[in-house]
Amino acid sequence: MKMIAAATAAALALCLGLTPPVFAQSTSRPASREQPSADLDSTRAAAERGDAEAQFNLAVAYENGQGIPRDLAQAAAWYRRAADQGQANAQYALGRIYATGHGAPQDQAQAAAWLRKAADQNHARAQYNLGVMYANGLGVAQDDAQAAAWYRKAADQGNMAGQYNLGVVLATGKSVPQNYTEAVSWFRKAAEQGAADAQYNLGVLLANGKGTAADSAEAVLWLRKAADQGHDKAREALREVEAGSTTSR
User: Fold this and answer.
1) Conformation bin of residue 87: beta by default, left when phi > 0, alpha when psi is -120 to 50
2) What is the pLDDT averaged over residues 42-68?
3) Which of 111, 64, 118 is nearest to 91 (CA)?
4) Distance, CA of 234 to CA of 207 (rounded, Å)
5) CA pair distance 201, 220, nearest whole angstrom
6) Is 145 in contact with 157 (CB distance < 8 Å)?
7) Is there a contact between 112 and 118 (Cβ–Cβ < 8 Å)?
């Protein structure tokens, strides 16, 4: 049967913690770590001539130690030169550097400013992380409505963390009208990308019949996926749902 025992459903609660900043490191084509390649030499020459893409790629090489010794200060300097020319990936990278303090002194206001520049160019990770900064008042005035708006922009581009956080915002009704049906939709999108908290929340909503028809079989499927990733609450919920399904037959 798809319906589960009411007592079991009532015992399940959503996990409503927002995902923190997710700053993925920049990457480009790898080069040998032992010595600069001819390709790297040509990249440097183009960067010094003012080519923004080359400046970004040279920054990545310095940050990752690709073909040259790792040098975070040089990476930050080349990201800055590319970012000043409007290169969105470099703007995001510079925002990440200021947010984490890896390569430059930590400065949340600078981080938010550079993330905003990249976000305005539809850089999904920048949009998500800018949303987190608004949610936490990091470098900007705390503003839940702005956070939700940036999560949605990132989520619309398929950003998993943005999809999850938007689901949380919709489930809690914080700064937006509470909407469990839409929350289910966004949790599902994030769950399909492997987000364990989203898999857990989707399972709970399916078990409780909130925002969707109650379906213990599908609830078990998603709770098991989360549990397989080490999600402790999902393990507990899985036992409850399976027990409730058994007693309701």
Assistant:
1) beta
2) 96
3) 118
4) 12
5) 12
6) no
7) no
pLDDT confidence of 46, banded at 50, 70, 90?
very high
Average pLDDT over residues 217-228: 97
Separation CA 88–CA 164 (nearest Å): 24
Cβ neighbourhood burial of 103 (10 Å; 0-12, 13-18, 19+)? buried
Give the side-chain half-sphere CA count within 13 A for 5: 14
Q: What is the 3-state secondary structure (H, E, C) of 43-55?
A: HHHHHHCCCHHHH
> What is the CATH topology of the domain spanning 6-16+24-247?
1.25.40
Angstrom CA distances, 109 to 52, 102, 130, stand at 24, 15, 11
Is pLDDT at 230 greater than 70 in this prediction? yes
Interatomic CA distance for residues 107 and 200, integer angstroms: 35
Of the CA atoms within 13 Å of residue 23, those in its CB half-sphere come to: 20
Q: What is the pLDDT at residue 12?
A: 76
Mean pLDDT of 97-115: 97
Domain boundaries, the chain: 6-16+24-247
Tokens 């996990």 label which residue?
Answer: 15
Output the average pLDDT for the chain. Answer: 89
Name the phi and psi angles at 75, rounded to 5.
-60, -50
Is the pLDDT confidence value at 20 over 80?
A: no
pTM across the whole model: 0.88
**C-alpha span between 2 and 248 (Å, rounded):** 10
In the predicted structure, residue 24 carries a pLDDT above the cut 90:
no
